[in-house]
Specification:
The complex is a heterotrimer of chains A (290), B (252) and C (225). With 252 residues, chain B is an alpha/beta fold. Chain B is built from 9 helices and 10 strands. Chain C is mostly helical and 225 residues long. Helices cover 82% and strands 0% of the residues of chain C. In chain C, helix 4 (70-85) crosses helix 5 (91-117) and helix 6 (120-128) runs antiparallel to helix 7 (133-163). Classes of the chains: A alpha/beta (290), B alpha/beta (252), C mainly alpha (225). Chains in contact: A-C, B-C. Chain A binds chain C through residues 13, 16-17, 20-21, 24-25, 28-29, 32, 35-36, 39-40, 60-64, 67-72, 75, 96-99, 101-102, 105-106, 108-111, 212, 215-216, 272, and chain C through 11-14, 17, 68-69, 71-72, 75-76, 78-80, 82-86, 88, 168-171, 173, 177, 180-188, 191.
């Protein structure tokens, strides 16, 4: 889902960070011999329960998934789930505001117990953290003007499709649909403006984004709501924190029996998406993606 | 009063002062003259410890001045010095400039010193400028304040390092007049200057230094009218002009 | 549409949240600046010493801090220290340390520059009056340096206040982040709120920086005599 444009910037920040950090820690570990490997350990399930507090990292500015309301309380689809985790653990939830670029670091340094921040499962990330079962799925969507609605990818052949650089949409269309002409932009906001100006026939990015945007812009409809490979979104814990990981997996299965994530959807996403989205296109129950 | 024996000073291996020996009696005014870069100013700085000497000795009032850094502040209180550049402290007004030394170095009370300062300012003719800041003063006024600032320390000897060299010509006189008065009052002074007329008028003795050595010394009337060495003659010739027009070498 | 946007600022606790965010930014930057002032003065004095070892060490420190982006330093203090040594610093403490280190380097360089800009004669005249070197610094060099330093230090302070927006990457929520949270929370309900929120954040930064620069101007005028 956050394969958005920020990705690129974050990537650069991260690269910059790692280059220097690598050099620095190399120097540090040279001095302190074998200190770096187990310098910090994650809190176990028992630690969390006995302390009565669970620290969960969420986004604070990504409505409607993780945001802060006018009273200063954390809200959203991820937070609804996090609240439930706290309740079932018998622990108070302490929220920590994360950025896309620092989610992995927060887990690696055990500054949070769990990350529930719209965390898309990728192979690269799975090497650094342990993902539990997914609770959401995302795909690409294509939005176009009602006057020339695109309802199937085949209709795009020879036409101009707007994408943002560095997004999954760009990669997907470059690899799978070379017959579509791509108009690429650096900034996310530019892409929507380009579509409004008629500089392209359609625009593609994460389906949640285009769906929400279409709701705000009469005359535009998401004709293709689910396209390409499905990405899943899952909670993550520090690598090797197996107890907590297992507990989360069991929790997700148990919650599936009560259709918890549909309730979550109704509470947090429905007010935004309305009828435009079929909940089953987003929600994953019991950790099972059909 | 001040005695200097076989003083030697070098910068980075280059000798700037060599085998300098002379003394200044109480109440005597000694003027050091010589070409630029001959080491006169360096000599003055050595006397109050702003430059370290390589060898030799300097004695003030019979006591040899040591190399011990911590002793210098006390010694310097007996040696007043005025520099070529206007060296008043720009962030303080005239009165504060004068009071700084006595109050902070000598721990004298403000009341007593202020009376002293006003007396000295009156003497250099600048009492009305006591609240002025240095940037509001002319060059000549600044140097007169600098003299007052040195005098308030009640020094045993005053050192003047080309104090008029950076002044506009019309301001030179007011500063030299103050110095002449001091000389008349019996202040012991060691002066470096290029003002030969002034040197003639104020000095008890002239010391001519060239290339770091004392070449000649004597009473001003002897030195200026009848120098003994060629070097002194050549130096003095630089200050006199012949009328070239009369010789028919000028413009027609 | 516009009046809908402005409402966002007064909704719930949003105004208070923005002020709290501003306070966080100010607390970090002003406290860091206070530390930097003291440490930077010492560093600046050390850099004017003739001792080659001290000089080289100060130079290396200065260059290191300057080359490293502040973001990298923040990451090193917050995550790096944990990874390497297991030391868990809070985001706030990490920010204080990093901004103090940065401020000390910048301040040290400013102090050094100002100290060497004071003519040598000032120092010599002070000594010639019989003042001890320490008193020469106290009464002559420092007061003059301070007058030249104030505008430069103020400039550094305002730069620091603005740079605090980076601390959000180590989990410290300051005014700009609160602004973004408010904008995002109202992304669908009041899209025009963004303009108002950014305007409010701009105003808050201005309110914070204005007294500092007025104080500087006041001091400058006072010292002009």
């Amino acid at each position: 889902m956050k394969n958005s444009i920020n990705h690129k910037i974050h990537h650069q920040i991260k690269k910059m960070f790692w280059m220097t950090a690598a050099a620095f820690t190399l120097a540090l570990s040279a001095c302190s011999s074998s200190a770096s490997q187990d310098a910090v350990t994650a809190r176990t399930l028992a630690d969390i329960q006995s302390s009565g507090k669970v620290v969960i990292g969420v986004f604070s500015d990504k409505a409607p998934f993780g945001y802060v309301d006018a009273s200063g309380n954390y809200q959203g689809y991820d937070v609804y789930f996090a609240d439930r985790i706290g309740k079932d653990l018998g622990a108070a939830v302490e929220y920590v505001s994360l950025e896309p670029a620092n989610r992995v670091e927060y887990l690696e340094t055990a500054k949070v117990d769990i990350v529930l921040a719209n965390f898309t499962v990728t192979e690269e990330r799975a090497e650094a953290v342990d993902f539990a079962s997914p609770y959401m799925k995302v795909a690409l969507g294509v939005v176009s003007p009602d006057s020339a609605l695109i309802t199937d990818v085949s209709q795009l052949s020879g036409k101009t499709l707007i994408v943002a650089k560095g997004t999954t949409a760009e990669t997907y269309f470059t690899e799978n649909h070379p017959e579509v002409n791509l108009l690429k932009f650096d900034q996310y906001t530019e892409t929507f403006n380009a579509l409004l100006d008629g500089r392209g026939d359609a625009f593609s990015t994460d389906n949640t984004e285009v769906l929400a945007w279409a709701l705000q812009n009469p005359g535009f409809t998401v004709g293709v709501p689910s396209l390409g490979g499905l990405d899943t979104i899952a909670p993550a814990v520090r690598k090797g924190n197996t107890e907590l990981l297992n507990w989360l997996n069991e929790e997700i299965i148990a919650l599936g029996t009560e259709e918890f994530f549909h309730q979550d959807y109704d509470e947090t996403l429905l007010p935004v998406y309305g009828d435009a989205v079929n909940p089953d296109d987003l929600v994953v129950e019991g950790g099972i993606v059909e | 009063m001040l005695e200097i024996q076989t003083l030697r000073k070098s910068f980075d291996g280059q000798i700037v002062l060599n085998n300098i020996s002379f003394s200044v009696q109480k109440g005597e005014v000694v003027v050091l003259v010589g070409p630029s870069g001959c080491g006169k100013s360096t000599l003055l700085r050595c006397v109050n410890g702003l430059e370290r000497i390589d060898s030799g000795a300097i004695a003030l009032e019979g006591r040899v001045l040591t190399c011990d850094k911590t002793k210098w502040p006390l010694i310097r209180q007996k040696i007043g010095m005025v520099f070529q550049s206007y060296d008043l402290f720009p962030h303080m007004n005239v009165m504060e400039n004068i009071l700084l030394g006595p109050m902070k170095a000598q721990k004298r009370s403000r009341k007593e010193t202020e009376a002293d300062a006003e007396r000295l300012l009156t003497r250099v003719g600048l009492l009305d400028k006591k609240s002025a800041f240095p940037r509001q003063l002319s060059g000549g006024q600044k140097q007169r304040v600098a003299i007052a600032r040195a005098l308030i320390m009640k020094p045993a000897i005053m050192l003047f390092d080309e104090v008029t060299a950076a002044l506009d010509p019309e301001m030179v006189r007011e500063v030299l007049d103050v110095m002449l008065e001091l000389a008349e009052e019996g202040m012991t002074m060691l002066i470096v200057t290029h003002e030969m007329q002034f040197a003639k008028a104020a000095a008890d003795r002239i010391i001519f230094i060239d290339k770091g050595e004392i070449v000649e010394s004597g009473a001003p009337e002897d030195f200026f009218t009848n120098p003994r060495t060629d070097r002194a003659k050549r130096f003095l010739n630089m200050f006199s002009f012949e009328n070239r027009k009369k010789k028919g070498l000028g413009v027609k | 549409m516009q009046d809908m946007g402005v409402r966002v600022l007064f909704e719930g606790a949003n105004g208070v949240r923005l002020l709290k965010g501003l306070w966080t930014a100010l607390r970090i930057s002003l406290l860091s600046m206070a530390f930097s002032f003291v440490l930077g003065t010492l560093l600046g004095c050390a850099m004017t010493l003739k001792n080659p070892v001290v000089k080289a060490a100060a130079k290396i420190y200065l260059e290191f801090i300057r080359i490293m982006p502040q973001l990298v330093l923040l990451f090193l203090a917050y995550f790096g220290m944990t990874k390497a040594f297991g030391i868990q610093l809070s985001g706030y403490a990490s920010a204080l340390i990093v901004f103090t280190m940065w401020g000390t380097a910048e301040m040290g360089d400013l102090v050094r520059g100002v100290l060497i800009s004071i003519p040598k004669h000032q120092y010599l005249s002070g000594l010639a009056l019989g003042l001890s070197p320490w008193r020469v610094y106290l009464h002559i060099i420092f007061p003059q340096s301070a007058r030249r330093l104030i505008p430069l230090a103020i400039n550094l302070s305002t730069r620091m206040i603005k740079t605090t927006s980076l601390v959000v990457l180590i989990g410290v929520v300051e005014v700009l982040k609160v602004g973004q949270q408010i904008i995002e929370a109202n992304r669908y309900a009041a899209p025009s709120g963004a303009l108002w929120v950014y305007g409010a954040v701009f105003l808050l930064y201005f309110i914070a920086c204005y007294p500092i620069s007025s104080l500087a101007r006041l001091l400058e005028n006072k010292w002009k005599g």
